Amino acid sequence: MDLETLRTQCLSCTRCPLHTTRTNVVFGQGVPTAEVLFVGEGPGQSEDEQGLPFVGRSGQLLDKYLFAIDLDRNQNCYIANIVKCRPPQNRDPLPAESEACMPWLREQFRILQPKIVVCLGRIAAQRMIRADFSVTKEHGTFIEKGGIWFMGTFHPAALLRQKQNKPDAFADFLALREKIGQVCEHTY
Ligand code: URA
Ligand code: SF4
To answer: Are 52 and 26 spatial neighbours (Cβ–Cβ below 8 Å)?
Structure first.
């Protein structure tokens, strides 16, 4: 199955209660040949309205960091979320909602077979890396699991609130560029 077929299936998903309050399912965006996959938490208001990931203020910041290391969601990476439908009032996804939605992300993984996965924020990092992952203490560290390199960094929305973390976040993206040079074949 390809990503477009999977997207079509996902767009009609009713596996969890978030389907009742969404405007659009936010399946993901990027190129099907991506070796680098970014995983956020879940859609916010702008994403819910447009059906695309990271298109609000935090998305503009993410795009700046991507641009700085020669990544572009339309050229050489892919962006997805733990939950594909917006949690009301932007609350954290409930464990049951993340659990219900994970099969979609697993299928995205299976199709893309990324070399590097960057978890944006605690919710994604604790799902994808380790249940007790600390972004503050462990951001920027690459951890290999089953032949895939995982790294957790600050969520862009958190960086908009806590600007003092921006230099650390930027350093994580520079470390990402280095890692891409080492393990990716056609990203650069
Ligand atoms: N925050 C996220 O975690 N994901 C998005 O797609 C947008 C904002
Ligand atoms: Fe389906 Fe995920 Fe949306 Fe829940 S959040 S309805 S599991 S796509």
So the answer is: yes
